[in-house]
Endothelin-converting enzyme 1 (Elysia marginata), 284 residues
Amino acid sequence: MSTDNNYENMQTVFWTEYLRILKGLKEPVDKERWHMAPYETNAYYSITDNEIVFLAGLLQSPLYSKTFPDSYNYGALGSMVGHEITHGFDEEGRLFDQDGAFRDWWDKEDMKKFKAHSECFVEQYSNFRDTRVNKNVSGINTLDENIADNGGLEASYYAYKKLTREKGAGPKLPGLGFTHDQLFFLGFAQVHCEKSTKQSLLIDILFDEHSPDRFRAAPLMPQQTSTLEACSWVPILQAGGLGKVRVNCFPKAIATWHGRESNPRLPDLESDALTAPPRCPLYV
Ligand SMILES: [Zn+2]
């Protein structure tokens, strides 16, 4: 390693890691080993270990704080927890059993429903076009992540509602006027706020198994319209994510919450609303 050649340092890091992985092919599986470093702002589900891991780098503001309302924490971190759990039941996860062994353990009826819902997601996401690079999302390449996003958000919302039934919603945040359902979705949108160059976005849309963040945040909302008490919030997120307005307005609202900025520009329901994309029900 040297202090003046980042490229060579990165090559050394990649080669060392590559050789370590190759060496591991001849060794017994170490199920205790983490696949990411604790300081990363990330989380994962491992199909072969059947485990989910949330790294220390993730468990902090703005994704989580014990001082935040439950609604926000469930929308932000809770939906990520749900996302990772749902990976155990996506196109890949469904093929591995509780011990991480490769085994198709679903019955035919479940499989049929799963396929029908999957096809709906493929069609829905393939229709999303990112106008910044004039490319459509690949609904096939991103299917597992889209399933996890939708399942995670819905599971977390139900978990939050169960919590409030048991212990109440708690006081609203002073000065903001948001309901707790709205805060839930603010928290969720905050996770997917992005700022990227066109080049980086193009690489993501061509090769990343995740949809671009604006499509991860926004299209999920219409899935929920039958169950949500926060329906009036739906067009806001939907509009932000479909490129007409902004997902980026949400950090502004959050910034205000943290006291760094006054008079946030909240989306205008009248002018920002768009037609809802097709709805893919998760549970029937
Ligand atoms: Zn994922």
